[in-house]
Design brief:
This protein has helices at residues 3-28, 36-45, 53-60, 64-76, 98-118, 124-146, 183-191, 214-233, 253-263, 278-281, 296-310, 335-340, 342-352, 370-378, 388-391, 400-408, 431-438, 462-470, 494-502; strands spanning 51-52, 80-85, 88-96, 160-162, 165-167, 171-173, 196-199, 242-247, 267-271, 288-293, 316-320, 326-327, 360-364, 383-386, 414-418, 424-428. The protein is α/β, with parallel strands linked by helices. Among the domains are: 3-118, Winged helix-like DNA-binding domain superfamily/Winged helix DNA-binding domain (Arc Repressor Mutant, subunit A); 160-390, Aldolase class I (TIM Barrel, Alpha-Beta Barrel), CATH 3.20.20. The strands form four sheets. It has an eight-stranded parallel sheet. The chain has a three-stranded antiparallel sheet with strand order 1-3-2. A three-stranded antiparallel sheet has the order 12-16-15, with no helix packed on it. Strand 7, helix 8 (214-233) and strand 8 form a beta-alpha-beta unit. Helix 3 packs across helix 4 and helix 7 (183-191) runs parallel beside helix 8 (214-233). The longest helix is centred in the first third of the chain and has 26 residues, at 3-28. The chain starts with a helix and ends with a helix.
C-alpha cells in the first residue's frame, strides 16, 4: 500500500469512527433525543450573542429554509429560543436555551475526553508534533477548498452583491488623500459601474477654517463631496456605489464615520489599523462596512471581534498587498517577503471567509493591468481595487502637477519612507523625501489629526506635507504612490480604464 492510499484510507476511517462514537455518546447522554445533525446545529449557534438565521446557515453551509425546519424542531424540544429584535421586528434571532447550552458543553466535553484518551501515551514533544501536523493538513485542505476550478479562458470581473449593495463592475477605486480622490473621480468610477471612493483624510484642506477648526472643516467638506458625487450619478442607470475611505488612525474617526453616514455614503472602507469599533459607530445605519486587512490573521481578528462585540460580520474585506501606495500594513523588513506571498495570502484570506460566503473579498496592491486582475481573481478574489492607475486620469481630483509627477517618474524613483503614523509608506522620491531623510522638519503647529502621531517626536507633519502636494507643490510635499506608478505614461479617462478591464477577449 503506497503512502497516499494509506493516508486516504486512514482519514476516511477516522471520520467514520468519530461519527459513530458521537452517535453512541449521544444515545447514552442526557440529550438522547438529539441527532448528530441537531447537536452540530446547536454548536453552530453557540453560547455567545444571539445569531441571525443567515449567520448560522452560512456556518453550516446550508440554506436558510433547511435551517428553519431544523430550528423548528429544536425550539419544540426547548434547546433553542427564537425571537424578533425589538428595534426591528423584521429581524429574527436565535439563541440556546439553558438546555441547549448544556447539550453543547456535554458534546464538547466528549470531544475533549476522546482526544485526551487518544494522545495519553504520547510524550509532550510527540503530542506537539502530532497537533502541528494535523493543523498543517487542516490549513492545506481549507486552502484547496477555495482555489477556483480551472476553466478555459481568463477570469472576468462579474457583478457582485455586497449584502444588497449592487456593484455592476467589481472594480473599486482606492481612497487617496489628501484631496486626490474626491467627488469628481468617485462619480466617474460610479458611472462606469465601479465603486467610487472619496478619501476622508483631511478633505477640508481648502476650507478657510481648516487650521483653526479642522474637524468641522473636514466634516463639512466630506459631506459636500459625498453629496456632490451622489448627485452627479443619481440618474445613471446601473451605476456603482459611492463610499468613503476613513483611516482608523484619524483622531476624530467617530465624527467622520457619522458625517459620512449622514451624507449618504453607501459603504465605508477603513484601514490604517484594525477598525474594531466601526460597527458600534455605524450601528443604526445600513451603510456597508469594509475593513482593509494585510493578512489572514488580521481578517480573522476582525471577524471574531465584530461577531463577539456586535453580532455582525464585515460586508466585504479589502486585502491590500505590499505594492499598494501610501500607508502599508506591513513592517518595512516584511515588504519583499510579503510580495512573494501575495497570491498565497489571497487564498488564505479566502479560506478564513469560507464560513462567510456572503462576505466578498476585494484585492488591491499592484493591480495595474487586466492580466493582474485575472491572477487575483483566479486565486479567489471577488473584485479588485485600483488607485495609482486612476491618478493620471482626466477626472482625478489631483492637480496637474501631481499627475505630471506620476507621468515623469521612473521605477527607481519609488521609495519606502517612514510615516509619523508609525507605518512604512510608499511615495515618490523628491526634494521633501530627501530632505526629511537628513534631518527632521520642525512642526510649527499640530491640529491633532492622528491618534498614532506624536508631533513632538515626529520628523515631519504628514498633513502639511500631503496638503502641499495636493496644492501642486510636488517637490516640497509628500506624493504617495503605488509600486507600479512608473507605468503611468499617459493621461487617460476613467472609462478607458474600465473598458480595458471588462473587455472580453
Amino acid at each position: 500500500m503506497n503512502t497516499v492510499t494509506k493516508i486516504n484510507e486512514t482519514l476516511v476511517s477516522l471520520f467514520n469512527i468519530v461519527l459513530k462514537m458521537e452517535e453512541k455518546a449521544l444515545r447514552q447522554s442526557t440529550n438522547h433525543d438529539l441527532s448528530i445533525t441537531e447537536i452540530h446545529t446547536l454548536v453552530a449557534i453557540g453560547e455567545g450573542k444571539p445569531k441571525t438565521m443567515t449567520q448560522v446557515a452560512n456556518t453550516l453551509k446550508i440554506s436558510v429554509s433547511t435551517l428553519t425546519a431544523a430550528i423548528n424542531k429544536l425550539v419544540n424540544k426547548d434547546y433553542v429560543r427564537r425571537f424578533r429584535v425589538p428595534e426591528d421586528r423584521r429581524i429574527v434571532r436565535i439563541e440556546l436555551t439553558d438546555s441547549g447550552a448544556a447539550a453543547v458543553r456535554e458534546h464538547e466535553n466528549f470531544h475533549i475526553a476522546m482526544i485526551s484518551d487518544a494522545i495519553e501515551g504520547l510524550t509532550h514533544e510527540e503530542a506537539h508534533r502530532f497537533a502541528e501536523s494535523i493543523e498543517n493538513l487542516n490549513e492545506f485542505l481549507k486552502m484547496r477548498m477555495v482555489v477556483h476550478e480551472k476553466k478555459e479562458g481568463p477570469f472576468e470581473l462579474a457583478p457582485i452583491d455586497i449584502n444588497g449593495l449592487k456593484v455592476p463592475v467589481p472594480l473599486f477605486q482606492g481612497g487617496m488623500g489628501i484631496g486626490i480622490s474626491l467627488s469628481r473621480l468617485a462619480a466617474a468610477v460610479s458611472r462606469c459601474g465601479g465603486a467610487g471612493t472619496i478619501s476622508a483624510a483631511q478633505p477640508g484642506f481648502n476650507e478657510e477654517d481648516f487650521y483653526t477648526n479642522p474637524v468641522e472643516a473636514n466634516k463639512r467638506a466630506l459631506k459636500r463631496e459625498i453629496k456632490k458625487a451622489l448627485e452627479a450619478v443619481k440618474d445613471v442607470k446601473d451605476r456603482g456605489p459611492i463610499g468613503v475611505n476613513i483611516m482608523c488612525a484619524s483622531k476624530d474617526y467617530d465624527d467622520y464615520v457619522l458625517a459620512s453616514i449622514e451624507a449618504g455614503a453607501e459603504f465605508i472602507v477603513s484601514g490604517a489599523g484594525l477598525p474594531t469599533s466601526l460597527p458600534g459607530i455605524a450601528k443604526n445605519s445600513s451603510v456597508k462596512l469594509i475593513p482593509i486587512v494585510s493578512s489572514a490573521r488580521a481578517a480573522d481578528i476582525i471577524i471574531k471581534s465584530w461577531a463577539k462585540k456586535y453580532n455582525r460580520t464585515p460586508d466585504a474585506l479589502i486585502f491590500e498587498g505590499p505594492l499598494a501606495g501610501g500607508h502599508l500594513g506591513f513592517k518595512e523588513e516584511q515588504l519583499e517577503h510579503e510580495n512573494d506571498q501575495f497570491y498565497k495570502t489571497i487564498s488564505e484570506i479566502k479560506a478564513v471567509l469560507e464560513d462567510l460566503p456572503d462576505c466578498k473579498l476585494i484585492v488591491a496592491g499592484g493591480i495595474y493591468t487586466k492580466s493582474d486582475s485575472e491572477k487575483v481573481l483566479a486565486c479567489g478574489a471577488d473584485g479588485i481595487q485600483l488607485a495609482t492607475r486612476f491618478v493620471t486620469t482626466e477626472e482625478c481630483d489631483a492637480p496637474e502637477e501631481f499627475k505630471q509627477a506620476y507621468l515623469n517618474c521612473k521605477e527607481e524613483d519609488i521609495v519606502i519612507i517612514k510615516s509619523p503614523v508609525g507605518m512604512p509608506a510608499r511615495a515618490l522620491n523628491n526634494d521633501f523625501v530627501k530632505s526629511v531623510a537628513l534631518k527632521p522638519i520642525p512642526i510649527k503647529e499640530c491640529n491633532g489629526c492622528l491618534t498614532t502621531c506624536n508631533y513632538k517626536a515626529a520628523s515631519y507633519c504628514i498633513t502639511e506635507a500631503l496638503v502641499k502636494a495636493a496644492k501642486g507643490d510636488v517637490e516640497n510635499g509628500l506624493v504617495f504612490c503605488g509600486g507600479k506608478a512608473y507605468k503611468n505614461k499617459k493621461m487617460e479617462t476613467v472609462k478607458e480604464i474600465f473598458d480595458e478591464f471588462v473587455a472580453k477577449e
